[in-house]
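User: Predict the full complex structure for these chains.
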Amino acid sequence: MDMEFMLAPVEANKKQSIAQIFACNNKTAQFGVVLSPSEAQVLVETRSDTLQKMGRVEFGGGILEMMIFGFCDSPYISQDNYAQTLGELIEIFYYYKSELEWMPDEELIGKMRKLFDKTCLGSIEKLRNSEMEKMVHNYRYGISSEPDTISYGWNIDEEEESNE
Amino acid sequence: MSSLQTKGTVLRANLLENDYFPSLLREARRTRLLSNENAEHIQGDMLALLAEETKRFTRGESSSVPVERAHSLLKSICYSIGIFLKQAASPEEGIAVLKEQSVRELFWQGQTLIKKQVGIAKLMYRQVWASRIETRNMAYNDTIGAGISSFFKQYEPEFSGHETPAMIDYPIGGSPIETEGVEYILEYEKRLLEENRFCKQFTAEEIHAVMMSFDVGYADLLENIYEQVAKRVLPDGRLEDVVLPEVHSPKFILDDGQRMADEEFRDFIEQLGECSSADEKVAMMHERLHSFTDWVDVLESGSLYGGEFDAVFASLEKSELALLLKETITVDMERLTEYEKEWKMEFIFFLKELEPETRREIELLSNDVAVKK
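Assistant: Here is the predicted structure of the two-chain assembly.
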């Protein structure tokens, strides 16, 4: 059975992903951050390139939406750095997912958010080069448990319901 | 002229036992029994099924997996579909089924079939175990013990049906088994059962003598016992004279030593049971037992458990271990009590853990020593 055709990104799926990301703007606008169609396309390409580089394959929409809602309300993200930061976060996610295969996506994004806000104070370089490595090291050697994750922007639906 | 006659014929030689579904698809396309449209539809369905299985594998918690994992999941899907399609009366009928049913349906029907076959393999394993021959050969004992049984604990039909997670070192006779997964285990067990039943016509001593004449170090070898025995069977069903039970007369005959009286032995066993550690038991045995027969009687009394056997064996000299080795090859396993089987199996496992040179030394020594009883 030929794997190559199955695992290469299909053009139709990319278009669907772009549309899905663009739709997230409806909810992220309240936090002052939106993505343009071209920025959404770049994110999808970044995802595709990173998956290929990391030797991974993804079905369906993937983690893009989860990442957007996970970070859109961070105090360190503004419209100026929104698209670029998301792109870097996606790269970091897939790199460390390979190191922490057992961890659910939701949990990993939660921990990245916690480190980004509380420890790295918005520094992507520090997240990528230092804090994520420390977290992996701690898990590998059972050194310490992670603090509780915080509430995220992607719980928007629950917040909207409770405000009604 | 029927439409089939305008198309090619499936070549059985192009169908692979361990890659049946993909090879059937290739043949179907080559012979045009499957149209390009059908084939594309099947591939699209396979992608959707792979996405579903990946989600099930990660319990919906991860949207991405390593390529190797996706590849393995795909192989498992193909294995399941293949095992079902092999049931068809002919490859052509299998292709017809492929056109009528979705790959999802075929996959789950394959899963049902695999689970039935695992059940059959478990029943067959009981027969294999019951028919096992008594031998010093480590690979045989390990395989028939933990080796095959580990398959039933570790096999995952849904996500890795094509894998054979079993520690099978013992080489089965005949041509190499081409299949994988549960099909492999079924074929292996079938052949092992036939070999065991054949060898059961002869005593453990006769089989031991055959193997010793092949190689004195056969205990460590990856060698098929049945093939060695079968070579030496005469037309009338007997083994060749060259394989007499006593191949080698011992050079050293040792006195058994002073045996305990029955009542004293019973007291000893009771006191042994009150010891709080393996070391204490070992020390007491060395202090109070002066007869080889008493040592064996203690091993067979059910007074030792698990790691205590190892502690006892480790405290003995090579010559003493050699004498014990002789004891393990004297009686047909079927006539042994549970305690007798237990210490002999523990002893075989203990020997397996020794350095190969040490083990060989003990095996050679066992030919040269005996106890005068």
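The radius of gyration of chain A is 16 Å.
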